[in-house]
Amino acid sequence: MQAIQVTEYVSGPADLRISNLPIPEQSSRQYLIEIHAAATNFFDLLQIRGKYQNQPPFPWISGVEFAGVVLAVPPSQEAAKFAVGDRVFGGTQGAYATHICAEESQLHPVPNGWSFLDAAGLYVTAPTSFAGLVTRANVKASDYVLVHAAAGGVGLAAVQIAKAFGAIVIATAGSPRKLEVAKAFGADHAIDYRVSGWENEVKKLTPKGKGVDIVYDPVGMVEKSLKCTAWNGRIIVVGFAAGQIEKVAMNRVLLKNVSLVGLHWGAYAKEERSVVPQVWDGLYDLIEKKAFRGFSFQDKEYIGLKKLPEALLDLGGRHTWGKVVVKLQRQSDSKI
Questions:
Q1: Cβ distance 38 to 63 under 8 Å?
Q2: Closest listed residue to residue 155, CA positions, set 327, 320, 325, 38
Q3: Contacts of 256 (CB under 8 A, 6+ apart)
Q4: 157 vs 126: CA distance, rounded Å
Q5: Which letter does DSSP use for residue 100 in this model?
Q6: What does the DSSP 8-state code read for residue 19?
Q7: Is residue 64 within 8 Å of residue 129, measured between CB atoms?
Q8: Cα–Cα distance between 183 and 200 in angstroms, integer?
Q9: Alpha carbon of 247 to those of 39, 52, 111, 191: distances in Å?
Q10: Sign of CA dihedral 117, 120, 122, 128
């Protein structure tokens, strides 16, 4: 098989190379999958440079999210959920390759009518946004929801989920194209957060200028968002894409009766396992109702592992929206 194998830390995506390796051998609990599309993530950029909190021992294959076709079922599993030929998506280390092994708990069926391209980007972003807005913030109809970085992967997922629950969505983004994308995915209003005073513009869009009920923040904009958060508001801390951990004036949290709520989706499988199927059931329900659709980046194509470094560079340079996904083999059969 071909794969982006990392044998030493690199300075950036341009240093990544394709290796020819044996097809991985299944363990007794693993499926063998032929990958048709692999999605990129910001943490991939950190991991290849040795800057991420989870660093596999050398050598390792980069990438985590993928979609493809089952080639072989677990050798010792009698009641396998998936059969040979099934279309699946999932997440485990080693997605930047033509083949991968994964356990059943790391896989989900590709939704009916979805392409591998869109399904490849679901595993991390979609449940993160659903758990943040539904499980943690209890979003409901008529809530005013402010979604930061709304044209990113978790952002576009959050916009759609909030709208599906009847909320009014105010999106922020940093370019005219990204604002356009956010509105195309359902945002009621879109504001450029590069413009000074954007917080006041947000408040003007809410009844009597009270501010928003929920802030969904994958960037690190809590301090400024407090200025436009309503009494009893909830601020969901999802990540720090801006690159710095904020220091927040806690007196504002007190004075507005605001709840600061963290969301670490990856930890649910260990700390609160029962929530995981609830979240996925909720997402599949929205998909079935046509209230949630794929959000893979469509302005440019990346075909083949040779384009993976370019895809990561574009992602890191913030030149993209949604999920940046690389197409791999047998595209004529993959509905892409």
A1: yes
A2: 320
A3: 226, 229, 230, 231, 232, 233
A4: 6
A5: E
A6: E
A7: no
A8: 20
A9: 32, 22, 41, 24
A10: negative
Q: Which residue has the tokens 């194998």?
A: 5
CA distance 155 to 146: 10
275 backbone φψ class: left, alpha, beta (φ>0; ψ -120 to 50): alpha
Pull the structure tokens for residue 275. 């929530």
- What distance in Å separates the CA atoms of residue 236 and residue 259, rounded to the nearest whole number? 8
Q: Per residue in 118-177, pLDDT tens?
A: 999 999 999 999 999 999 999 999 999 999 999 999 999 999 999 999 999 999 999 999
Query: Residue 330: which pLDDT band, with cuts at 50, 70 and 90?
Result: low
What SS3 state is found at 36? Answer: strand
Phi and psi for 69 in degrees, rounded to 5? -125, 135
Rounded CA separation 108/284 (Å): 10
Rounded CA-CA distance 166/189 in Å is: 15
pLDDT tens digits for 235-250? 999 988 877 888 898 9
pLDDT of residue 335: 39
For the chain, the average pLDDT equals 95
For residue 74, give the nearest of 26, 109, 33 by alpha carbon.
Answer: 26
What's the rounded Cα separation, in Å, for the pair 134 and 282?
A: 9
The C-alpha atoms of residue 169 and residue 163 are separated, in whole angstroms, by 7
Place of tokens 């449940």: 127
Contact (Cβ atoms closer than 8 angstroms) between residue 325 and residue 39: yes
For the whole model, what pTM was predicted?
0.94
Residue 86 has, within 13 A of its CA and on its CB side, a CA count of 18
Neighbour count for residue 306 (Cβ, 10 Å):
13
185-222 burial, b for 16+ CB within 10 Å, e for fewer?
A: bbbbbbbebeeeebbebbbebbeeeebbbbbbbbbbbb
The identity of residue 259, as a single letter, is S
Q: Average pLDDT in the 314-326 region?
A: 96
